[in-house]
Structure formats: structure tokens, C-alpha cells
Amino acid sequence: PDALLKLGFCYQRLGAVVADAAAKKDAYTQSKAAYARLIKDYSKDTLVPTAMIEQAKCMVLLGDSNTALNELDRFQRDPYRSNPVAPLAITQFSSLLRANKRAVDAVRIVKDCRDRHEKVMERDPLRAAWIPALQYEHALATMDTGKLAEARAMFDSVTRKYPGSPEAVNSLWRAGQCQREELVAAITAAEASPSGDGEAAVNKAV
Predict the structure, then answer these.
(1) What does pTM read for this prediction?
(2) Which contacts qualify for 58-67: CB closer than 8 Å, 24 or more apart?
(3) Fewest CB within a 10 Å sphere: which of 17, 127, 143, 149?
(4) How far are the Cα atoms of 62, 121, 199 from residue 204, in angstroms, in the given order?
């Protein structure tokens, strides 16, 4: 199982660096096959959940997002939802859901994952490094539902708590994007409101 997982990783890295489209597709196909063999032939091995996540990545890279969604959906249920790598799967799952215009589902799923795993992850030196990405994905999903003020607070939290992470940098400009969209909405409301309520909304957004 360990050899198959490493073989899959090698093909994934090869696919990421080759320029030829056919060679890239072949590398990702070989990678997916290695993960599929691990999952099939060693179904009880502890590496199976990791192979499932990586296989789903290959599926996306090969243009098969729907199958990837089905694969990652399994991490919402036992025995996988309590697995230590479930937060990685749910982070990827949420991103695919958002790409399929299912942000409301993404918010619900990521929140459930955070409630289930985050406190334990904080005490795990390895998995603690996954928390910024999980929180950032939660904020993105919230933003996609139109809850801009709530999303902005989440982005600000990531920036404050994890200042050295890539997610903190991305959260900084995402928070600004939320504020801009809030302001545009408030200005639109002000222009449409004869009562002056819209002006109050603009002041609040500013």
C-alpha cells in the first residue's frame, strides 16, 4: 500500500510538470490507477482514505469532477467522517461543491467538519497546519452564499490567527473584496431608497 501511494504521488508530480497535454493526461491516469489499486486490493489499510483523496484530485485534473464529488462525499459518513484525514477531504469537497454552485451545502459540510475535528486538530502538530485551509474554505463558501459580513469576519480571523500562512494572505484581499461588495450593495440600496435608510446602510458598510 505504501509503495502504491508513493507511486501515485510520483505520477501526480510528473503530471504537474510536463508540458505535453497527452503526457500530462497519461501521468494523471497512471496516478489514479495506482490509488485505485491500493483502494481495491488493500481495502482495510489505513492509507485508503488518503488514496481516496488523492484519487479524487486526479479525477478533477482529468475532467471528471462529478465522480470526484461522489468519492469525497463518502467522508460525510462513517467510517470515513471521523478519519484523521477527513478535514483534507472536506476542504477539497467544499471547493468542488462551490464550483458546482452548491455553496449552501459547502457551508453546512465544512461547519460540521470543523465542529467534529478542529479542537482535536489544534492539539495535533501535524494536523494543526490544516486548520487555516479549512477555515479559509469555510469563509469562501460563506462568501459564495452572499453572507458577506459573516465571511469578512471569518477572513479577518484567519489573517489574525495564522499570519504566516498562505491563507492569511488570501484572506486579506478576500476580506477587502467582501467589504467592496457590501459597499456596492449599500450604495445601490441608498440610490433606490427615498427614505434615507440606504444612506445609513452605506455608513455602516464604510
Answers:
(1) 0.88
(2) 58/8, 58/12, 58/28, 58/29, 58/31, 58/32, 59/32, 60/96, 61/15, 61/28, 62/25, 62/28, 62/29, 62/32, 65/96, 65/99, 65/100
(3) 17
(4) 46, 36, 9
Closest CA to 133 of 149, 147, 121: 121
Residue type present at position 50: T
Q: CA-to-CA distance for 9 and 139, rounded, in angstroms?
A: 29
What is the maximum span of the chain, computed from C-alpha positions, in angstroms?
69
pLDDT in tens, 152-192: 999 999 999 999 899 999 999 999 999 999 998 888 877 77
37-46 burial, b at 16+ Cβ within 10 Å, e below that, comes to ebbeebeebe
